[in-house]
C-alpha cells in the first residue's frame, strides 16, 4: 500500500527539470508583461506545494499495513482526492490551477493572436489588397 502512495512523489521528482524550466518563465513574463504576469506562476507554485505536502503526508502516514493518519476516513479521503486528482468538494488544488490557466490565457492569447504567422500573412494580404485598390481608384 505504501509503494502505491509513492507513485505521485516519484512522478513529481522525475519532472523536476520541467518544473525548473516552467518557473524560470515567471521572471521573464514579469519583465515583459508587468507584475500581473507572474500571478499565474504563483498559483501554480501554491498548487504544486500543496500537492507535494499532501502526497508526502499521505506516504509517510502509512507504516507497513498501519495507517497513522488518524481514524478520520473523511480526512484520508480528502488527501487521497487531492493527491490522485479525484473529485472532491474540498478540492483546493484544482481551482488554483484553473485560475492560473485563465490568467495566463488572458495574458497570452491576445499576444498569440496578434503575432501568429497567420495574422502576419493576413496583414500582408490586406496591405497588398489596399495597394491594388488604391491603384485601381487612381486609374479610374
Automatic annotation (TrEMBL):
Highest taxon of source: Bacteria
Name of the protein described by the UniProt record: Uncharacterized protein
Source organism (scientific name): Mesorhizobium huakuii
Amino acid at each position: 500500500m505504501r509503494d502505491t502512495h509513492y507513485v505521485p512523489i516519484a512522478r513529481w521528482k522525475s519532472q523536476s527539470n520541467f518544473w525548473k524550466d516552467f518557473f524560470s518563465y515567471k521572471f521573464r513574463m514579469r519583465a515583459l508583461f508587468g507584475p500581473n504576469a507572474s500571478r499565474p506562476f504563483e498559483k501554480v507554485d501554491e498548487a504544486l506545494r500543496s500537492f507535494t505536502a499532501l502526497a508526502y503526508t499521505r506516504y509517510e502516514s502509512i507504516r507497513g499495513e498501519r495507517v497513522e493518519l488518524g481514524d478520520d476516513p473523511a480526512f484520508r479521503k480528502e488527501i487521497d482526492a487531492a493527491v490522485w486528482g479525484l473529485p472532491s468538494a474540498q478540492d483546493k488544488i484544482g481551482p488554483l490551477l484553473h485560475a492560473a490557466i485563465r490568467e495566463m490565457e488572458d495574458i497570452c492569447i491576445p499576444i498569440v493572436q496578434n503575432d501568429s504567422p497567420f495574422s502576419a500573412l493576413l496583414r500582408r494580404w490586406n496591405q497588398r489588397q489596399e495597394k491594388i485598390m488604391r491603384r485601381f481608384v487612381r486609374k479610374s
